[in-house]
């Protein structure tokens, strides 16, 4: 079942409305509060906020494919395929230990849907199909990759495409020389994708603490944000990498 507002308990105070990140809690002409289940991403923010004075929210187990809304949107949810919570992978945060991002390779994570809009999975497919055309390597442990029927084409399962989620991350690897090609493909897909998205560059610092791939992106017109995540290399690594 879906997240519901129990009408027998709700007093229509509307205190929960500002807590919905995608505006799926609505009021009608009579000021009755309800959930637009077509737009709801099952993130549980309204329920978890504790703002409801009469505890009117209730939910039951979600069926496939709607359960994808929950696992992609509620930070407490664990993806059955990856075994971790969140929309990306542990690899994006621990690459100095696992060495997936080796010298000469660069990773890109494209998060669709945030802030405050959400995305249908069919919008993510517009990007994955375009990237597949240039031969990127999709991260196999990413929950979105698991929904692909063919990584060579970037096609996503038909039965999940219309599910709306708070956000989804397309994560892939390419080599340094093909980075401009990948970034240009993202720019081209942006003309078709009907949501907002941000691009994260996952790279290794050179010995002189430089980030030449970031410089390439800036030269192509991408604006580099002021924040970053940095792993300091304290994990176990392969000295030959």
What does this protein look like?
This protein is of the alpha+beta class. It has two domains: 61 residues, Alpha-Beta Plaits; 136 residues, Alpha-Beta Plaits (2-Layer Sandwich). The chain is built from six helices and twelve strands. The strands form five sheets. Strands 7-11-5-12 form a four-stranded antiparallel sheet, covered by helices on one side. A two-stranded antiparallel sheet has the order 1-4. Strands 2-3 form a two-stranded antiparallel ribbon. β2 and β3 form a beta hairpin. α4 packs antiparallel against α5. The longest helix has 13 residues. The protein is elongated and about 65 Å long. The mean pLDDT is 89.
What is the helix content? 10-25%
Low-confidence stretches: none
Give the CA-based shape: elongated
Question: What do we call the CATH homologous superfamily of the largest domain?
Answer: ACT domain
Quick one: biggest sheet? 4 strands, antiparallel
What CATH architecture label of the largest domain applies? 2-Layer Sandwich
Strand order of the largest sheet: 7-11-5-12
Question: How much strand?
Answer: 15-25%
Would you report the number of β strands? Answer: 12
Q: Report the CATH topology name of the largest domain.
A: Alpha-Beta Plaits
Gyration radius (Cα, Å) is 20 Å
């Amino acid at each position: 079942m879906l997240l519901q507002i129990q009408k027998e308990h709700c007093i229509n105070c509307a205190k929960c409305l500002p807590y919905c990140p995608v505006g799926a809690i609505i009021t009608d002409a009579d000021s009755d509060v309800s959930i637009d289940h077509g737009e709801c991403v099952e993130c549980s923010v309204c329920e978890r906020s504790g703002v409801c004075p009469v505890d009117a929210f209730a939910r039951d187990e979600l069926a496939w494919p709607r359960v994808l809304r929950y696992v992609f949107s509620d930070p407490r949810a664990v993806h059955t395929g990856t075994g971790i919570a969140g929309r990306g992978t542990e690899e994006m945060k621990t690459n100095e230990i696992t060495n997936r991002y080796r010298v000469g390779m660069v990773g890109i994570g494209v998060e669709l849907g945030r802030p405050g809009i959400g995305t249908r999975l069919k919008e993510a497919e517009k990007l994955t199909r375009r990237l597949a055309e240039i031969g990127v390597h999709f991260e196999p442990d990413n929950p979105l990759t698991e929904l692909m029927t063919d990584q060579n084409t970037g096609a996503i399962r038909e039965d999940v495409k219309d599910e709306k989620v708070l956000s989804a991350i397309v994560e892939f690897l390419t080599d340094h020389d093909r980075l401009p090609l990948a970034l240009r493909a993202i720019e081209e897909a942006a003309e078709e994708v009907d949501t907002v998205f941000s691009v994260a560059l996952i790279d290794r610092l050179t010995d002189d603490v430089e980030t030449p791939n970031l410089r390439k992106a800036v030269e192509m017109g991408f604006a580099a944000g002021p924040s970053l995540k940095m792993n300091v290399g304290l994990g176990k690594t392969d000295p030959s990498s």
